[in-house]
User: Fold these one by one.
Assistant:
Number 1:
Amino acid sequence: MAQFSSYSTLGVRVHAVQIPDVVHQFEEWIGRNDGCHCVAVTGMHGVMEALHHPEFRDILNSADLVVPDGMPLVWIGRLRGHALRRRVYGPDLMFDFCATPTAQRSLHYFFGGKPGVAERLAVTLSTRFPGMKTVGVCSPPFRPPTSEEDEEIIRKIEQAAPDVLWVGLSTPKQERWMHAHRDRLRVPVMVGVGAAFDIHSGELRQAPHWMREHGLEWLFRLLQEPRRLWRRYLVYGTQFAFYVLLELSGLRRFE
C-alpha cells in the first residue's frame, strides 16, 4: 500500500488523499489480490459517531483507508498543512473508478440500499461503462439480519468472488458491517459509499455541483429528508464545529 500522509480529526485518522490516489490504490489492491482491504468514506457524521462511540472510532482507525468525504474534513486537512483541493466524494469516487480499464476488467458486487436500488445501480453503471461486470446484488433487511441470514449473505459473496464489494448501508452501519466481515471475505476492495447507491440509482436527487464543492450539500440533503437527517446535521454539525474549534485552538486534545 502507498504510504499516504494522514491527520487527526477528533481522534479519527483521516488520510490526506484525493480521488486519483484512491483509484490508484484500488488498482494496486486488485492487482495484488492479497486479502481484504476496507475503505471508509467519511465526513462529519462519521467523525461524530466515532466521538460518541469509542468502539466505532477504533473501527474507523483500523480501516485501510479513511478518506475525507465531507468539505469540513478537507478544510481541516488544509489547516493541518495538506494540499487537499477537493473531497473524496463517494459518488464521484465510484464513477471515476468504474471509468478505469481495471474496473471494467473487474468483478463488482453491490450490497445495500432499499429493495431494487442495488439492481438499478448495477444497470446504470453497466450502461455508462460497457464491459463492467456485476456478479451479485443484495439489499439486506433494514433490521439486523439473523445469524442464518448473515451466513447466507457471506456465502453468496464468497461464491461470487468479486474484486470490488460496494457497500451502501449508510454510516455507521456500513463501516461496522465491513469491519465485522473483513476477516471472512477475500475481496481486494471493500468500500462503503453510502448515498452513492441512492444517487446513482435515481432514488435520491444530487445536490448541485456548486453546493457539493462549497460544503453545502448537507443543506440540500436536509431539505430533502428533514425527518431522517435533522439530528445528523443540526445537532451533530453544531457539536462538530464546537469540538473542532477546541481542538484547533489547543484547548482540548482528542486521543
Note: The two ends are 25 Å apart (CA to CA).
Number 2:
Amino acid sequence: MENKMMQNEIKIINLPLPFWMGSVNCYLIQAGAGRLLIDTGSSNNRQALVRELERAGCQPGSLRLIALTHGDFDHTGNAAYLRQAYGGKIAMHPGDAGMAERGDMFEGRKKPNRLIRALLPVFSGFGKSKWFKPDLLLEDGQDLSEFGLDARVISIPGHSLGSIAILTASGDCFCGDLLENRKEPTLNSLIDDPVAARASLQKLRSMGASVIYPGHGRPFALELFQLAS
C-alpha cells in the first residue's frame, strides 16, 4: 500500500509476527534524495522486509535514518542488521534505549513475573546478536529536516516510557504502539501507563496530527477517533 502525502511518498510494509501474533507495520518514506525507515519489524521476517525495501528501490547507502518509535522487539528486531547492510543510523528515545542495548523489553516498565521475563527472549527472537546501541538519541520536539523529512519527534509515553511519534508538517503521524487499528481505532491493548497514554493522545491532537499510521493495523483519520471515557 502506498500513499502520497504532500511531497513525501509513504510505503507501508506489513510483516507477520511469530507464533500467529498478528502483524506489524514499518514505514518507508522518501526523504529528499534518500529514504527514512520508521520501525523495522521482528527478525523472523527479515527476508520479507529486505524484499520490500528492494522493490521500493531502497538500496544500501540510500537509507538515511532508521527511526524507532519504541524498544519492543517487533519494532527493533532488524535495526542492527539494517544499519550494517544499508548504512542508516539508528535513532530512538533514550527512555527505551536500554531495551535495545540489553534486550530487556521490560526496562522502564512494570515488571511481569519471572517466567514471562525468561520466555520472552526465546519467543521474540531478539537474542544478543540483535542487540544494539542507537547512534542518535531523539528528544521531544527534535527536528528531522537534516534527514530530508519535514517532521519532528513527539514524546508520547504510555505504551513505554520512551515511545515517540514522528509528526510531519502535513499532519502524518507515525505513532508506534500508542494507538492501533486492528479492527477499529483504539489505544493499544498493551499500555504500561494509561494516564500517560491518554495525555499523549491529547498531545498529538493539539499538535495537529491528522492521519495516524499505527504500528499495528490500518491508517486512520484521527478526527474520526473518539477515545471512550
Note: The chain has a mean pLDDT of 89.
Number 3:
Amino acid sequence: MTESNCQKLREINAVILHSAGQDGSGSVCIPPAAQSDEQVISLWLHGRSIHTQRAYSGDVQRFMSFMDKRLHQITLADLQEFADILVSLQPSSQHRILAAIKSLLTFSHKIGYLPFDVGKPLKVPKFRDGLAERILSEAEVQRIIGMESAPRDHLLLRVLYAGGIRVSEVCRLIWKDLQPREDGGQMTIYGKGNKTNVILLPNPLWNDLVIYRGNAPDTSPLFKSRKGGPLHPAQVWRIVRKSAKRAGISKPVSPHFFRHAHASHALERGASISLVARTLSHSSIQTTGRYLHAKPSDCSSRYLQV
C-alpha cells in the first residue's frame, strides 16, 4: 500500500472515530447532555405537569438561593445543612422539597452532568401519612353526587369518581376522547407525565353522557365553562367544595378526594391492586398499596379478645 493510500486510510478512520464520538483510544466520548445548571433543571422539568413544574421550580430556586453555588460544587454537608433549615416546615413539606432536590441531583448524575450522585446518602424525613383522612366512604360519595342537581356538575362528579382521574385531566377532556363500547363507553386520558390511559365507563354513566352531549362537536370540551371554554381546575375545585358542603360533609373535600375514593372502594370491592394501579396510571404499585394500608381489610387485632 502506498504512503498516499495509507494517509487516506488514516483520514477516513479519523472521520469515522469522530462521528462515532471516540477519541481514538477506543473509549467512547459521550458529550454531556447539558452545559449549565439552568439547562439541567430545564431537562429535569421537561414533560412534567404544569403544577409539578411550578412546585419543583420553587423548591429548586429556594435550594439554589441557599447554596449560592453551582450544582457541581455542592457537597453532602451542604445538603445536610439545607435539610436542617427546613425543620420549621411541616414534615410533608420537608419531604417534598428534599425529595425534589434528590431527584434533580440523581438526574444530573444519570445524564453525565455530575460525576456522582451527591444526594443519594441524604435521608429524607418521614411524615405522618394522612391518606385515610382523605378517603370518603361510599355513602359520602353517593350523597355528594346525589345532592348535586346541576346536570354538568352532577356528571362531572360522576366522571371524577368513576374514572379516578385528576382535575387537570378532567378539564382537558373533549368529546373526541370518548368512544362507545358494547357495554358502555371508554375515555382516553392524556395525563401526568404525558401518559395515555384508557378508562372504561359503566353503561348508566355512558348513556347519561351521550344525552348530555347533544350535538356538541368532537372538539368541544366535555365540561364547558359559562364562556364556552373548558372548565379551569379552580372552577372544578369550587364545584366540588360546594357539592360536599351541600351534602353535609365537613372534610375539606377536593377533586382528588374522588380519586382516593375510587382507589379505596375498588380495592375493597375486590379489584386487583395491579388493575387499580393501571387505571390510575400509578408509576409504582407501591403508590397504590398505600390505600391498602390506609384502609386495611383485615388486621391481627381482630383475632384478640379485648
Note: The longest helix spans residues 91-110.
